Amino acid sequence: MIAITIRQLGSALLIALLATACSDGNNNNDKTAGPEPVEPAPTCAEVMPQAVQTCVADVNAAAGDCYFDGGRACSADDPGFTTALNALSEAVEGACQDGDFMGMTTEAAVGRLSNACQSQSDALSWRTFGGPQGAVWPDADAGARDCLQIAQQTAAQFTDDSLTIINECLASGDCSNAAGAREAALREATAAVAEACPDLASLIAVKPETYIQRTADQIDCLTASANVDTTGLELSCGPSFVESLPPRGEWTQIILPEEKWGSRCGDGTDYAIQIKPAPAGEPLDRVLIALQGGGVCIFEEDCRNRLDSGLFNAQDDQPLELGIASNDPDNPFANWTKVYLPYCDQAVFTGGGIVEKFSDFEVNRFGSLNLRAGVRAARDIVWSMLDAEGGSGYRPDQIVALFGGFSAGAYGAIYNYHFMLDEILWPRTAAFPDAGGALDNGGIGVRTLGDVKIPQWAVTEYLPPYCFTGECAVGPELYKAMSPRLKQVPEQQMLVLSNQKDQTQQGDAFFSDEAQWINAMRKAYCDTKDLNGIQWYLTSDSVNSVHVVSIQDAFYYGEVAGERMVDWFSRAVNDPDSISDFAEEGNFVSDIPGSLPFPCELP
Fold first, then answer.
1. Are strands 429-434 and 400-406 parallel, antiparallel or unpaired?
2. Residue range 1-12, pLDDT digits in tens
3. Cα 377 vs. chain centroid, distance in angstroms?
């Protein structure tokens, strides 16, 4: 098998390096031979990239074997993983002293590289087989399994070939031909997957070219993790992709040119984000990412009415500093690194890069690309600042993040949470969709529009590989699909928030009757409250229509069933296994004719 060949070659190269490091340069079997020149032992900087390459090859091979031979995902302590990571640790410890790699201790360097090896290999496996739960593989027939096997092995070989090109060019100091060689390897891998899997998108949402391109992006992240100096390479990930660093404790707008980031607002202008790194003395690796709201336009007249509203431009948006995003000393997130993602295509952060043409105007639907560009830019800024700070540097598995949105931004948080976990690889991220539950009215609503707009807005490739049909536009259906992949670590949860009376959210989801809306929300709560990693906090103002609760102090610092929302959020990041659902019956049945009690027992 290809994967075994990679593993054998990688291990042989690593053994050779270690043997050279341990040799005294003498031929002990020839007593008459004179002393031979002593080869200098490989340096830490030489050993680490090769050790990472070998580790990734071995972990990719082990991950494939678990599916191809065992029919399931590997356990976290799979012997193939353990052996690969132990070999990586031994190689680095044998060649590196404290301070050799970016001033880190050897232990910290091993931790960084081990995480890079395992997590980037995991990302390939999850993209291929349907998340860490391997949701696609069990239902795949023999032909589909052959397709997925060839795709995974081709991507693994492409990874190894690319890392060979990169490591050789960096070692020689001449990377002038690296870009061309990498592009040729990418084309070859894409063609191989396309030949074996012409219908790959029907299995895991992505076309062969996207499948391999995302592997190429992972390779760039691996390279940035394993090398101090990547001069001569053009990487799409890591500190070298950052042009300047914002000051700490201040909001800075970062404009993302389309030619570099692939992002674009509805009116054709460049996308922009706002970032405020944690104040000096506060940890940079606690991150709040907030997605702006602003409704949705689907039909021509809706969009025409919004043309002059400013809703299609991100560069004039100012970040929110209210409630969960406030600087209030009583807010536990006041001094976190904060990222604000404006909303500028009226497609609830799902546009896949198409231009929707109406009779006399057009709207660019790039919401998915904008969100991904914004998060990647923020990641690379945090990465650069953490590496410059010293200590253990950037460790994605040590980032604690809240990824949420308000109204339309809540839809965006639901539809893009998997990206934070599966591709950005921040496992300790909790999502908080506030007032955007994507509930379905049973008629012409979220589900039926999902059937139409997911393909029309080119969204499919940006949804999870285990849920990308029209029903996956419905919040509770997506919760059910995502639940098996959550809680790999305690922080990994979906924190669903809303007031039960919310006429704005009701209208956005095409519910004409308020009681029907409230009953649908209560049913959604009861249907999903016991799912792994799904938690609810429902406020109960039955007099006022309240839209978005986490940025209103009355609700953020208020109580539901004896629990303050602010404390619920704090426990979600500090003691995540302790949180539970909070909802109250309230006076809805008496205040709103037709509304029904919760169809389940409340906690």
1. parallel
2. 333 344 444 444
3. 13
58 CB-near residues (< 8 Å, 6+ apart): 7, 10, 11, 80, 83, 84, 87
Mean pLDDT of 104-117: 97
Tokens of 13: 């190269």
DSSP annotation of 324 reads G
Residue listed under structure tokens 């870009």? 179
125: its two tokens: 């496996």
Domains in the chain: boundaries: 2-27+37-239, 243-591
Tokens read off for 591: 């205040």
Instruction: Name the nearest CA neighbour of 151 among 56, 57, 64.
Output: 64
Q: How far is 373 from 262, CA to CA, in rounded Å? A: 8
Between the CA of residue 72 and those of 80, 135, 358, 489, what are the distances in Å?
Answer: 14, 9, 47, 20
d(CA 517, CA 490): 32
Distance between CA atoms of residues 436 and 33, nearest Å: 79
Q: What are the structure tokens assigned to 485, written together? A: 């992949």
**Shortest CA distance to 570 belongs to which of 562, 560, 578, 581?**
578
CB 182 within 8 A of CB 168: no
Residue 15 has pLDDT above 60, yes or no: no
Give Rg (Cα) of the chain.
Answer: 25
Give the whole-angstrom CA distance, residue 236 versus residue 260: 9
Query: Can you tell me the distance from the alpha carbon of 430 to that of 487, in angstroms, rounded to the nearest whole number?
Result: 10
Which residue type does 311 have? L
Which residue's entry shows tokens 């707009």?
453
Which tens digits make up the pLDDT trace of 475-496?
999 999 999 999 999 999 999 9
208-264 pLDDT, tens per residue?
999 999 999 999 999 999 999 999 999 999 999 998 999 999 999 999 999 999 999
Q: What average pLDDT does the chain have?
A: 93
| % of residues, the chain, pLDDT over 70 | 94
Q: What superfamily in CATH does domain 243-591 come from?
A: Alpha/Beta hydrolase fold, catalytic domain (3.40.50.1820)
Digit-coded pLDDT (tens) for 55-85: 999 999 999 999 999 999 999 999 999 999 9
Assigned token pair, 314: 């991100």
41 pLDDT band, cuts 50/70/90, is: confident
Q: How far apart are CA 108 and CA 85, in angstroms?
A: 14
Distance in angstroms (rounded) separating the CA atoms of residues 115 and 94: 19
In the chain, what is the straight-line distance between the N-terminal and C-terminal CA atoms, in Å? 53
Is residue 193 within 8 A of residue 213, CB to CB? The reply is no
| pLDDT tens digits, one per residue of 440-456 | 999 999 999 999 999 99
Contact by Cβ (8 Å): 514, 503? yes
Note the pLDDT of residue 308: 87
Please give the Cα distance from 273 to 34 (Å, whole number).
66
Q: How far is CA 514 from CA 157, 191, 507, 542, 591, in A?
A: 56, 53, 9, 11, 11
